[in-house]
Amino acid sequence: MEDNFEEKKDWIENEVVENAATVVDEKGFVVNEALRDESSVGAGSSPRGNNSSAAHWIVECILLAAVIALFVLHFMGGDKKSPVAQKPAEVGNGEVVYINIDSINANYELVSILTDSIDVEKQKQAVVFQNRQKSLEQKAANFEKNYSSGSLNPQQAQYAQQSLQEESTRLQNDYAQAVESLELRYAAALEQIADSLMAAAKRVNASYNASYIFTYQSGGQLLYADPAHDITDEVLHELNKSFKKKNK
Prior knowledge:
Layout: H1 2-20, E1 22-24, E2 30-32, H2 33-36, H3 47-75, E3 96-100, H4 101-107, H5 109-149, H6 154-205, E4 212-216, H7 232-246
Parallel strand pairs: 3-4
Antiparallel strand pairs: 1-2
Helix pairs in contact: 5-6, 6-7
């Protein structure tokens, strides 16, 4: 047993001596101490071991350089997208042109169609509410007459008065809803007309390249407009041409 212990002790000491020859150089790589000291290499040393270690060190350096390059590219902006070249805005020639809104309202087919339909609905609703108002007034007059003559008992009078009040409330609510509906239709019509006018003006201005397009209307702030800068007829022609094309 003592012999086995001595053998194990000798084996451990040999391992420690062999491992002591393994060191880490200044770059952090594990190398053999004998390879770091060229003066310690004897005539019987194997040149294959030197070449292998040198090649290993070169590969490690190359890999380290590659990792550093990837790190720099990633964290120093290498993954940023290239800026997209933006199309420069078109610059006008400084000219000012204008559109006569009175003429557009009078001659643009879409304006007449939209406004005419709204006017028809407005007149229709006016007749309906006038008739309902007259009917309510007649019922109220009959109630006053019957109440004054004493032909209604208290219960009948209370019921008739409550019925008139409820009908009056319904009439007011329905009238408010009808007015709101007409206002929404009118606002939508104005927006549709304005959008088409703007689109037509841009198409016409392609041949003028004007910097400003104003609208002129009677009674507005513009007191005088030079007819030479009036593009109303061209815009009106473009509006009606586009409208007819869409409604074929």
